[in-house]
Specification:
The structure holds two protein chains of two kinds. Chain A has a four-stranded antiparallel β-sheet with strand order 1-4-3-2. The termini of chain A are far apart. Helices cover 23% and strands 35% of the residues of chain A. By secondary structure, chain A is α+β, with helices and mostly antiparallel strands. Chain A contains four helices and four strands, in the order H-H-H-H-E-E-E-E. Chain B has a domain of 85 residues: Roll (Thiol Ester Dehydrase, Chain A), CATH 3.10.129. The chains are: A alpha+beta, B alpha+beta.
């Protein structure tokens, strides 16, 4: 998955494509690109739909407004991470025409150390 | 003094044609299987668009490539993107980064970089900012 992610972006550096090249550079396995964690949250897109339903928002009226990743440790193929997501803010903007749904998703390794934070802002059109 | 002056331009990343094949690979890699990105019939008949559109996160992925290509693998400490407009397939994207500031940290220098991606006619597709760690042994080499 991570390799197709890199190939789709036309990445040529073998540390993102090939295990032996990554290991020769000192990584455990193929290194992932900085925005790869989006693939980890997309695997559980059902949770996003469940959250929107709970908030009584229509998934068809949602746009991805902005996205941020904060990296604390490199993420390699084969790593085992646990993600915990929370709703951080629900804000009406433009006189109620838009609702911003902000979430924070934290990934931790098996020792509980913070590896990556995913800050996502979805925009719901209220019309 | 910081070896990375504000105003430094990162090497520009010009994608060349973003083909349907690249978008399909990215679909498999990202898990975002929305047909709007790969099925032109769906894009036209169901979404009312002339053709498929590239994933918004594809542009952000290119920012990631641009930054890691400059600072090296593992150097991107944070990356943030705002999505401005849709990008049709078979377009090109020009991704640019400009160093805004650099502060000294124990491991070296933490550069704040402003990001911009525009398509062939100059339309802004995405913008953002990032923090990239430039380790001191790399800057002195």
């Amino acid at each position: 998955m991570a390799v197709n992610f890199a190939r789709g972006l036309d990445e040529k550096n073998p540390v993102y494509l090939d295990r032996s090249a990554a290991q020769a550079a000192g990584y455990r396995d193929v290194l992932t690109l900085p925005t790869f964690p989006i693939a980890m949250s997309t695997e559980r897109v059902d949770l996003i739909f469940a959250m929107l339903k709970l908030l009584q928002l229509d998934a068809a009226k949602i746009l991805h407004g902005s996205q941020k990743f904060i990296h604390h440790q490199p993420i390699c193929v084969g790593d085992r991470l646990t993600g915990t997501k929370r709703l951080s803010a629900l804000t009406d903007k433009k006189g109620g025409a838009l609702t911003f749904v902000d979430t924070v998703l934290e990934y931790r390794d098996t020792d509980g150390a913070l590896v990556c934070e995913d800050h996502c802002s979805l925009v719901h059109r209220n019309s | 003094m910081s070896p990375i002056a504000s105003g430094t331009l990162l090497p520009v990343l010009d994608t060349g044609l973003i083909t349907r094949h690249r978008v399909a690979l990215y679909m498999h890699g990202s898990g975002d299987t929305n047909p709007i990105h790969v099925d032109s019939d769906f894009a036209r008949d169901k979404a009312g668009l002339p053709d498929c559109i590239v994933h918004g996160m594809y542009s952000m992925g290119l920012f990631g490539r641009l930054l890691a290509g400059w600072g090296g693998p593992g150097s991107v400490r944070s990356i943030e993107t705002r999505f401005a407009a849709m990008l049709p397939v078979k377009e090109t994207l020009r991704c640019e980064g400009t160093v805004e500031s650099a502060e000294a940290v124990p491991a070296g220098w933490l550069a704040t970089v402003a990001l911009k991606a525009s398509k062939s006619d100059g339309t802004l597709i995405a913008s953002g900012s990032a923090q990239v760690l430039i380790e001191s042994q790399k800057t002195s080499a």
